[in-house]
Amino acid sequence: MIVEDERIHEEHSLLKMVADNTTNLIIFTDAAGYITWVNKTFEKVTEYRSAEVLGKKPGHFLQGPLTNPDTQDYIRNNLQRQVRFKADIVNYTKSGKDYWVELDIMPLKTVEKKLIGYMSVQSNVSNVKMMIGEMLSAKGILRTVLDTVPFHVSVKDPQGRFIFYNKAFSKDFRHNENGNDYAKGLNKQEKEVLKGRRLVFDQSMRINDQVRTFLTLKFPVENSGGQTYAVGRVSIDFTELKHARENLREREQLYFSTVKSINDAAITVGKDFKIIFLNNSAERLTGFNLKNARSKLIHDVFKVQSLDRNIAINPLQCMIQEHTDILNEELLMISKDGRKIPIEGSLTEMQDSNDDFAGIAIFFKDVSDRFERRKLERDMEVRRISAVIEGQESERDRISKELHDGLGQMLNLVKMRVYVNLEDKEPELTELMDEAIQEVRRMSENLMPAKLRDFDLPTALNSLVKQLKRIYDIDISFYSYLSEDLDDSRKINLYRIAQEAINNALKHAEANHISVSLIEDEDKIRLAIEDNGIGLNSEDNNNTSAKSTRHGLINMRERANIMDGYLIIESNPGLGTLIIVEIPKYDRK
After folding, report:
1. What distances in angstroms separate CA 34 from CA 59, 78, 102, 177, 501, one per listed residue?
2. Which residues pair with 526 in a beta bridge?
3. To the nearest whole number, what is the mean pLDDT of the chain?
4. Predicted pLDDT of residue 414
5. Which end of the chain lies in a sparser environment, N or C, as judged by fewer CB atoms within 10 Å?
6. Sign of the C-alpha dihedral, residues 417, 422, 424, 430?
């Protein structure tokens, strides 16, 4: 008997050692149900120390308000029967937090079948219970959602019996809650779905004496093991959508047929700014056919730039951000093969049925003939003005020489005769003669400066600046960088522009500081004249000074056009004036 007790004690000790290293909660009790030992996992989960629970019954401190009384009775009955059993029960920690455990209670008996105690192995199944609860809740939510949607949802088992359908399905096909009563078996399609296929098709069904068109999806329903055990079906009634789509298709065909037949080029762009359509004229002008252009961004196909400068322009950006239809102006379109085609046209915003932005329609036409005609007219006008100005310059040169060589020399001769023949020298007469000679020289210099005739442009401009600075006693600065001299025609025109701009600043703008610069860029020559005067007054057109200034500006612009350049004028009342002339570095003619 003593040997037997020692063997049992050794086995009991061995079980305790194993129990301390498991993740389950383990409790040993005596035959009366009082705790004799608990493992460390028990202490960790329940928050009770071993010393606090020894000698107590588990049910006296581990169970609480949510513990099911029926489960408690079930446990007591099986303990009295001294049999092994399992049960799920809610227990509580020392701090009052509830948790679920799965009990596996085993009676401990001697060889003679004498009960000496119980071992309880408890698995914490709180997470499992929570997941089951969430799944049941999700199932209820899913059922509510599926009953709310307007399309049909149903599931059939392999025998063709309905195991689920939503309210929309029940309403249209008059099914009651007992779906099994309406078993019709599986059709050929559904048998294919049961093999793992997924089918999408249109089908027409008569509902409430109306033929409706549905888009139907039939799909295999799989269990957690990946095996197909049912056939699911979702059918969406798109009868109205189909009719609307057919009407839209008819309208689109009519629209595209109309657009395709017009002579002007037409491009339609979606709200993602990708091309939807090009008509024949647009294909011919852009060099892209519809197949290659479709789904391309508009700026990859329809490339435009300004006429006078090689500056790329985005017409859609101008329309959307600045509300400006830039195509109303003449622009150059760059075709696929690099041709520059003069165009003009218009942009129209497209809207959908909700008046929301749906895209843009672009209409344009080739205006090369008009452009060439205007270019020819401009060239003729430039040549005419050039001839007039050259004639004026020739006449100025002739008069300048006559003043200098004729009248100037004659006055000098008169001065010498007067000085020799008069016995009584009259200083006033001599002074008057000197002034007349100087005036003749000044007039000759203004008409055609000797330095402009004999030296380069920077030297002539520097001489002009020094002369005016001395006469008017104001601050005039000059800076230049020019690697080589210009031909006579462009040299004279730039000089006259600078002369006119400086005279305007001195006589009309009341400026006390003027800066003049002549700079050579990589491919341009830039002349700039800036003053700090009162600025140009564009409103006072009746004023003699304003008329003179306006005439001078026209003259400057004409000279710039002759040189294939352009004139920029920036002026604000009280803030002065900036005049810039840019011409090509080399004469394109």
Report:
1. 10, 16, 20, 53, 116
2. 519, 582
3. 79
4. 63
5. N
6. negative
Q: What pLDDT is attached to residue 395?
A: 63
The whole-angstrom separation of Cα 331 and Cα 335 is 13
For residues 458 and 336, give the distance between their C-alpha atoms in angstroms, rounded to a whole number.
45
What residues are paired with 213 via a beta bridge? 204
Identify the CA nearest to 233 among candidates 321, 295, 296, 173. Answer: 173
Q: What is the largest CA-CA distance in the chain?
A: 177
| Confidence grade of residue 268 (pLDDT, cut at 50, 70, 90) | confident
Q: How confident is the model at residue 178 (pLDDT cuts 50, 70, 90)?
A: very low
Strand segments (E) across 258-302:
265-270, 275-278
CA distance 365 to 549: 40
Left, alpha or beta for 166 (phi > 0: left; psi -120 to 50: alpha)?
beta
**What top-level class would CATH report for the domain 149-237?**
alpha beta
The residue-averaged pLDDT of 399-421 equals 59
- How far apart, in whole angstroms, are the C-alpha atoms of residue 362 and residue 302? 10
Whether the CB-CB separation of 23 and 39 falls below 8 Å is answered with no
Structure tokens at 96: 């009052």
For residue 52, give the amino acid letter: E
Q: What gap in Å lies between CA 460 and CA 466, rounded to an integer?
A: 10
Q: Where are the domains of the chain?
A: 2-130, 149-237, 248-365, 367-448, 454-589
| Contacts of 129 by beta carbon, 8 Å cutoff, 6+ apart | 88, 100
CATH T-level assignment (fold) for domain 248-365? Beta-Lactamase (3.30.450)
Which tops the pLDDT comparison, 378 or 256? 378
* Residue 357 and residue 349 in contact, taking contact as beta carbons nearer than 8 Å: yes
Q: Is the dihedral of CA 416, 418, 419, 421 positive or negative?
A: positive
Residue 527: pLDDT band (50, 70, 90) is very high
What is the arrangement of strands in the sheet containing 566-572, beginning at the earlier edge strand? 475-481, 513-520, 524-531, 576-584, 566-572
Using CA atoms, how far apart are residues 187 and 191, in angstroms rounded to an integer? 6
Residue 54: helix, strand or coil by DSSP? coil
Report which secondary-structure segment, H or E, holds 37.
strand 35-38
Q: Fold match between 248-365 and 454-589?
A: no
Q: Which pTM does this prediction carry?
A: 0.40
CATH class as words, domain 454-589? alpha beta
Predicted confidence (pLDDT) per residue in 186-211, tens digit: 888 888 888 888 998 888 888 878 88
Question: 2-130: which CATH topology?
Answer: Beta-Lactamase (3.30.450)
Q: Which two tokens stand for residue 519?
A: 């700079």
Query: Which residue matches tokens 């329609």?
Result: 361
Interatomic CA distance for residues 164 and 229, integer angstroms: 13
pLDDT-derived band at 505, boundaries 50, 70, 90: confident
